[in-house]
Design goal:
The protein is α+β, with helices and mostly antiparallel strands. The protein is built from six helices and 13 strands.
C-alpha cells in the first residue's frame, strides 16, 4: 500500500501533463512501422493564433484510395534555400508514399469529425551505411469542399543516433498553422492552392478542391531521384552558388 502511495503523485503528474499537451504532443497512435507513424490529433488540441483559420468540425470520415493518396502527394515539390544555392526536389519518393498509403487510407476512414490525422514518415532511398534518413511530417484532414494538408518538417535529416529508435525519430516539433517566412517551402503545383492566413499564403498549407480530385494524376519522374540523391555536394564552396532541380536532374552554377 505504501508503494502505491509513493507512485500516486507520479500517475497524477503524468495525467496532468497529458491533459495539458497540445499540437503534435497530444497525439494518439493509430499505426506505426519502422518507416512511418500515423496518429489522430483532436481539433481542440492544436495550437492556433487565429481560431477561424481552421474549421471547428471536419467532413470525416473520408474515403480515398491508395492510388488517390499517390496522386495527392506524389507530385508535390519543395524548395530549400541556403547560402550555397537553392535545391528543388520532390517531398516524397513513390516507394515512400506506397509504404504508408494503405494505413493512411484506413486512418482517414477512422477519423472523427473533431480530429485530424498526423503522419510522420522517415525514408532513406539510398539505404547505405553512410546515408541518413530524412523525416517529413504533415497533418491531413477533410472539409466539405477540400482535402487539406499542412506540412511541418520537409525532408529533415535525422541523425544516426535518432533514426533507429521510434521514440526519437517520431519526436517532432509542433506544426504551425500560422504563416511565417521559412527557407524551406512547398512550390506551387497543379491541383492545389495555398491557404491564406492573416492575408498571406502559407506555403506549407495545401488546399485540394474535392471537385478537382479526379483530375489529379501521379506523374512519373523524369529522373530517378536516387540518382539525384547520389549527386556529390561535398565540393560546394562558399563562392560558388548552385541551384539544383530534381525535375531536370541538373546542377546550375551561378
Amino acid at each position: 500500500m505504501k508503494f502505491f502511495r509513493l507512485l500516486l503523485p507520479c500517475f497524477l503528474l503524468i495525467g496532468f501533463l497529458q491533459s495539458c499537451a497540445s499540437g503534435v504532443k497530444s497525439r494518439s497512435l493509430l499505426f506505426r512501422s519502422n518507416e512511418f507513424a500515423i496518429y489522430t490529433v483532436a481539433r481542440d488540441k492544436i495550437n492556433l493564433k487565429q481560431e477561424t483559420s481552421v474549421a471547428k468540425t471536419f467532413a470525416h470520415p473520408v474515403e480515398l484510395t491508395e492510388d488517390k493518396i499517390l496522386d495527392l502527394l506524389g507530385n508535390i515539390r519543395f524548395r530549400e534555400e541556403s547560402s550555397y544555392g537553392d535545391v528543388n526536389q520532390y517531398i516524397f519518393e513513390e516507394k515512400e508514399i506506397k509504404e504508408f498509403a494503405l494505413d493512411l487510407v484506413d486512418g482517414l476512414q477512422k477519423l472523427k469529425p473533431d480530429q485530424l490525422l498526423l503522419v510522420i514518415s522517415k525514408y532513406n532511398p539510398v539505404k547505405s551505411v553512410v546515408s541518413h534518413y530524412s523525416r517529413t511530417a504533415f497533418y491531413i484532414w477533410s472539409t466539405d469542399t477540400s482535402i487539406e494538408i499542412l506540412f511541418g518538417e520537409l525532408q529533415k535529416e535525422i541523425s544516426y543516433d535518432e533514426q533507429g529508435n521510434y521514440f526519437d525519430w517520431s519526436n517532432i516539433p509542433d506544426i504551425p498553422f500560422e504563416h511565417f517566412p521559412q527557407s524551406t517551402y512547398v512550390l506551387q503545383g497543379q491541383g492545389f492552392s495555398f491557404k491564406k492566413v492573416g492575408g498571406f499564403r502559407n506555403r506549407h498549407w495545401l488546399v485540394f478542391d474535392k471537385t478537382d480530385l479526379a483530375k489529379l494524376k501521379f506523374e512519373k519522374r523524369k529522373k530517378n531521384s536516387n540518382e539525384i540523391s547520389n549527386s556529390v555536394d561535398a565540393d560546394m564552396k562558399a563562392d560558388k552558388k548552385i541551384s539544383r532541380d530534381e525535375e531536370d536532374g541538373v546542377l546550375l552554377e551561378e
